[in-house]
Amino acid sequence: MTSQPPAPPSCRAAFDHPSTTAGHRRLVVKRWAWLILVLSLAAAAVWAGLGKPWREVVGLTVFSLCVYPLLLWVTLLALRRTARMSRILTTYPWRAYPCDYPRRSAESSRVIRIRFSEDHAPTLRLTPFTVNIAEKQNPAPTQIWFAGDPRYGGVISPVGGHFPVRVVPERLGERVPAGSPEADALAERAELVRGGRVSTT
User: Fold this and answer.
1) Residue 167 pairs with which residues in a beta bridge?
2) pTM, whole model, 2 decimals?
3) What is the DSSP secondary structure assignment for residue 74, as one 8-state letter?
4) Dihedral (C-alpha) 44, 46, 49, 50: value to the nearest 10 degrees?
5) Which residues touch 47 (CB under 8 Å, ≥6 apart)?
6) By the 8 A CB rule, do 9 and 16 touch?
7) For residue 161, what are the CA distances in angstroms to 11, 66, 113, 138, 185?
8) Separation between Cα atoms, residue 161 and residue 99, nearest integer Å
9) How many CA atoms lie within 13 A of 53 on its CB side?
10) DSSP strands (E only) in the chain
């Protein structure tokens, strides 16, 4: 007899679940550590070039100007996404849904298809970084916890809520079901929708 995966907690918001709070905190710490590392490497590159003739540091300078601004931008973007994820997790509770993982080439982003209802099973893209969510300490790979609006995406986690990941619609199709005014207001508060436009980041 197989054991049933744990049901989502009956919390008002997903962020009230201790495993989710801890998982989000780990994500924030990891992204701040990455920011500190990028800034430290940039400072080390500047220090290595101080007092040296221009021709000796031209390669390092060009490399630094090409690489570090991009790394810094990606890192700050990821940090900004953790704040958006926090808003979603404090607005919506966890709900469990069946899911599967459409096959993609090795180069493409990992995606997940969640069956919210019989006639609405959108494919959602994991952002800002890809991750194999089916293998992240997941006791039930065919089930996913979701906090958000099925029309606009939100945050997913393997069963248990310990590994939150932002997801957005791969494409906004015409079969998106209409929502109530209350659901629309929640989506605006969580910044899934801003000024009538769906946030795809």
Assistant:
1) 126, 154
2) 0.81
3) H
4) -110
5) none
6) yes
7) 12, 38, 18, 10, 25
8) 15
9) 2
10) 95-100, 111-114, 123-127, 143-149, 153-157, 165-169, 193-194, 197-198
Six-digit token string for 66: 């090409």
Tokens 């910044």 identify what position? 191
Per-residue pLDDT of the chain (201 residues; tens, 9 = 90+): 455 666 777 788 999 999 999 999 999 999 999 999 988 988 888 887 777 787 777 777 787 788 888 888 888 888 888 988 999 999 999 999 999 888 765 655 588 899 998 888 888 988 877 777 766 667 777 899 999 999 899 999 998 888 999 998 887 655 566 778 888 888 888 888 887 777 776
